[in-house]
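Quick log. Single chain, no ligands specified.
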Amino acid sequence: MPRAIWSGSISFGLVNVPVRMFSAIAENDLRFHLIHEPDGSRIGYQKICKTEGEPVPDDEIVKAFEFEKNEFVVLSDEDFQAARIEGVKTIEISDFVPYEEIDPIYFERTYYLGPQEGGEKVYALLRDAMTKTGLAAIAKYVMRDRQSLGCLRVREGTLTLEKMFFHDELRPPDEIAPSGVKVAKGELEMATALIEQFTGPFEPARYEDTYRDALCKVIAAKRKGETIAAATPEREDEQPDLLAALRASVEAAKKVKGSARAKRNAPRKHAARKRRPAKGR
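-> predicted structure:
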């Protein structure tokens, strides 16, 4: 059983579901340290006052909000306590909505929710009711002194909490996409054909972090004392005619897809069976 990172309850109506929260993600990032090359010692940092240029003790450091440039409002622990709202240990459901109506841009991070001891039945009740209706729940909760928006859904029989961004945290895409650009009919048809060649079911196991794997090989080689030489970057050719490039891409994709299909459909070779001599009658 993994270690819970939060515990509280899901509240909808007068029903409370005691739950524990677990991280659903185990990131495989490579972590690097800064060290002093001559002796291999780690690099440390001090909290320096930028005006005095001297280290500052922890008891002289406070939190402040920059209201305007160089105008700071200092906040104490009591100030933060005064701003705390009810429901610090509660995931408060306010609405049930169709999951497919939620734009994925709102999702930030995923957590699993499991029942606390003694709360298995009411947990199963909420899970089964959400499964039957096919709806997701929108809720608010407080974690690490910050209120967050969340989406509750059922995944593989487990209640899952998607931490979401609030609406005012999303940046509008104004002036990012080009406007007034006309696409030729032939180019659109070829682009559509190219997309069709790459269309298939989503199989997450197919996608691997090849850069991380390559970097791990570099680290292993360096550990053995081997010399690493970076490959010379390829020169970028001039941009070909768009339609010609699309046509060549479609043909190349067809060949790759056809080769993969042939391998799948190739008859398997079975070892020849030895014939047994017929029994006499």
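The first helix runs from residue 77 to 83.
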